[in-house]
Amino acid sequence: MSENFPLQKLLDLAQERTDDAARRLGELIGAEKEDGRKLSLLREYRDEYQARFMEAARLGIGPDEWRNFSAFIGKLDEAIEQQEKIVEAARGRTAAGQQAWLSERNRMKAFDTLSQRHQKQVLRKEARKDQQMTDEHAAKRGRDREDD
Asked: Are 32 and 87 in contact (CB under 8 A)?
C-alpha cells in the first residue's frame, strides 16, 4: 500500500491558486488589449477629424467653425491622454498579475518536487520490501530442499 504524500493538501491548494492566478492573468491581458484597442480607435478618430479640419481650413471656414474644430480636437486629445493613462495602469496590473502567477507557479512546483521525491522514496521502500520478501521466500525454499 502506497503512503500518501503528507503535503498533498498544500500541493492541491498551490495548484488551485496557480490556476486562479493564470485565469486572472488572462483576464488582465484581455482588459489591457481592450484598453489598447480603445486608445487606437481614439487616435484614428483624432487623425481623421484632424484631416477633415485641415481640408475644411484649406477650403475656407469661418471663425466659429474653426473654434468648434479646435475645441473638439482638444477634447479628443484629452480623451487620448486619459486613455493612455488607463492603458499604462492596465500594463501595470498585467505585469503584477504575471508576477503573481509566476510566484504561485513556483510555489506549486516546489510542492510538486517534494511530492515526486516522496513518491520515489515510497517506491524504493516498496521495492526493498518486495526484494526482502523474495529473498526470504528463496531462503525458505532452499531450506525446504535441504530437508528433503
From this structure: yes
pTM of the full predicted structure?
0.74
Cβ atoms 114, 7 nearer than 8 A: yes
Between CA 29 and CA 35 the distance in angstroms is 10
Contacts 24+ apart (CB under 8 A), 21-27: 21/97, 21/100, 21/101, 21/103, 21/104, 21/105, 22/101, 24/97, 24/100, 24/101, 25/94, 25/97, 25/98, 25/100, 25/101
Residue length of the chain: 148
8-110 classified as CATH 1.10.287.1700:
yes
Query: Contact, 83 vs 39, CB < 8 A?
Result: yes
Instruction: Quote the DSSP letter at residue 62.
Output: -
Grid cell in block for residue 75? 477634447
* Tens-digit pLDDT profile for residues 95-143: 999 999 999 999 999 999 999 999 999 999 999 999 999 988 888 887 7
Residue among 104, 117, 115, 114 at smallest CA distance from 13:
104
Contact 49, 73 (CB under 8 A): yes
Say which residue the cell 510566484 belongs to: 103
